[in-house]
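Moderator note: this is an archived Q&A kept for reference. The question asked for a predicted structure of one protein chain; the sequence and the answer are reproduced below.
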Amino acid sequence: MSKDNLGDKNAKDTHYATLRRAHRDGKRERGEIPTPVQDKRKRSAAPDWKAPQLAPDQVLLYGIHTVRAALDNPERKITKLSVTQNALVRLETGLVEELGFPVEIVTPQDLDKILGPDAIHQGAMLETVPLPVRSLSALNDSPLILVLDQVTDPHNVGAIMRSAVAFNAGALITTQRHSPTESGVMAKSASGALEMIPYIQITNLADALEELHKLGFVSIGLDSEGPEPLEQALSGAKIALVLGAEGKGLRQKTRQTVSTLARVEMPGAIKSLNVSNAAAIAMYAARGHLAKA
């Protein structure tokens, strides 16, 4: 084989490897295949890594889907895009000069130093400020919303947010305390959904539920020992599903304030679900009810 042919072959191999990697990353972002467990040897290679100190008005978003969604959100104020050459092509940003914010070409190792060895950044990181603070007035016309009672894990909240967008929920409401603020981890878990649904953090959950009742919502608190199955508890033309943290569940005040308590029937040996899985099942059931209402 001639050197020219060998060079052509290597170029083609590199091109197809890039396409395969992009296809695989896309499937991971959509949850179609699991994200591989990070190699412990890789983590030990940076034992002294510490998360950077961010200003109160600074958020680092990363991952192709997350960054692309942020770029498409007119409410997102962007400070800087740090990106590898390959990721820049995948983001399809058009002319860099016309973006209206600085773009820095970096290496994956540059981003590892900022985000840590475990962050699956896919070569893209966006420096931005948090989205505008939203109140209950940000609710749109959707008859389905989700309320979280002190769910603290940003991975769970991000996954719930993604499901909420998939089921066209009008908002995700959480408490200001004991709930994650906007972050790269939550945004990555949401895979772009953070830009697509109001994330409303309120001071007092009981007061917020009372306000939702005045707006015509029937609030249904999910509880493993609820008096009736969720399908039988669904009523009305506007539903607010309320979920508590794993282990603790709904707080007593929340249990007393919701319109009704209900359980997700689980006939198998395991009687509890991850809160993000329970949220997805509950929204599916609620959508079935609303379609008939």
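Archived answer notes: Residues 122 and 153 are 23 Å apart (CA to CA).
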